[in-house]
Amino acid sequence: MSSIPLTLAEAVPLGTVLLQRLLDDAGIRSLVIKGPAFVELGVRKPKHSNDIDLLIHPDDRERVAGLLEAARWQSISHWFPPALDDVIYSVTYAHPSFPASVDVHHYYSGVFARADAFEAMWTQRVSVDMAHAQVVTMPSAHALIFEALNKFKAVGVGQWDDTARAVVDAAQWHELAQVRRAAEELGATESASALISALGGPPAPHASPKFLRWAKEAGRFRSRIYFWRIVTRSPQSIPRVLWQQINLPEKHARWWAEAHGVTYRSRRQVLWLRLRGLVMRRDGRSR
After folding, report:
1. Helix, strand, coil content of the chain in percent (nearest 5)
2. How many whole angstroms separate alpha carbon 109 and alpha carbon 66?
3. Beta-ladder partners of 129
4. Pairwise CA distance, residues 287 & 276, whole Å
5. What H or E segment, with its residue span, contains residue 23?
């Protein structure tokens, strides 16, 4: 009897449950972020999710990588030197028999407390229903901040106020006092300032070097940011990075094509499309 393949709409919640249980059975803590979990928390409207997102403690990265690889989940992320660990905040894994990939985040862009932030969210963790099971995620206040930060990093600073208002309008849950407290726990008082203002709170002063750099890079083409980080921090890694980008493994090329809605033909085709996209982004903004 032939089996019917899972759709993405089915695979994302089911894969979320299975992967979190896989980590939990190994004693590894994880929080489900974005996707259906945030819909359940009331911080985003229902929408189609193409992948699974998990947040782990940064100290667990190597253990998680080994566990996933043992379960046939293969990394499809590009190699970058350790000097870029502060801007490369997740690793993407794909399974040959499963239609949804998973992004494993060891921190989140705009959250500057890192390990302390994870501990704060884990202490206040909640459960939501997914695929007829329970998954562990963060409280609504932290999730609303994550939802806003995810959108802030994709647009320029000049669009943050409008973006924050759109996030608030789309959410069914928004309590100013809880969001302000969550922002302090995440080290995101500055980066979530536009969201707090949209909720009626006072804006935070923008002064810390980490925030100013993060804000400057918002809306810019990420590959350019990575390239200049390598040039300034780890120039000896340039040959290896360029070689791997030119000789893109087929599994990476196929994943890139699928993620961008392109019919895959060859690695050369994907390389050409990526180079063309890089040239067309002369204004530094993501399409």
Report:
1. 55, 15, 35
2. 24
3. 134
4. 12
5. helix 8-25
What are the structure tokens assigned to 206, written together? 């923008």
Digit-coded pLDDT (tens) for 166-195: 999 999 998 999 999 999 999 999 999 999
> Quick check: 51 and 102 in contact, CB under 8 A?
yes
The dihedral formed by the CA atoms of 180, 184, 189 and 192, expressed in degrees to the nearest 10: -60
pLDDT, tens digit, 9 for 90 and up, residues 234-261: 888 878 877 777 777 777 787 778 766 7
pTM of the model: 0.84
pLDDT tens across 23-58, in order?
Answer: 999 999 999 999 999 999 999 999 888 899 999 999
SS3 128: strand
Q: What is the dihedral of CA 8, 11, 15, 16, to 10 degrees?
A: 60
- Do residues 143 and 102 touch, judged by C-beta distance below 8 A? no
- Mean pLDDT (whole number) for 204-209: 83
Look at residue 136 and give its three-state secondary structure: strand
* Cβ pair 126, 108 in contact under 8 A: no
Are 13 and 130 spatial neighbours (Cβ–Cβ below 8 Å)? yes
3-state secondary structure of 76: coil
Higher pLDDT: 116 or 76? It is: 116
Return the SS3 of 285: strand
Structure tokens at 254: 């196929």
Residue 140 CB partners (closer than 8 Å, separation 6+): 41, 42, 43, 126, 173, 175, 178
17 sits in the region (left: phi over 0; alpha: psi -120 to 50; else beta) called alpha
Phi/psi class of residue 132: alpha, beta or left (left: φ > 0; alpha: ψ in -120 to 50)?
left
Q: Which amino acid is at 263?
A: T
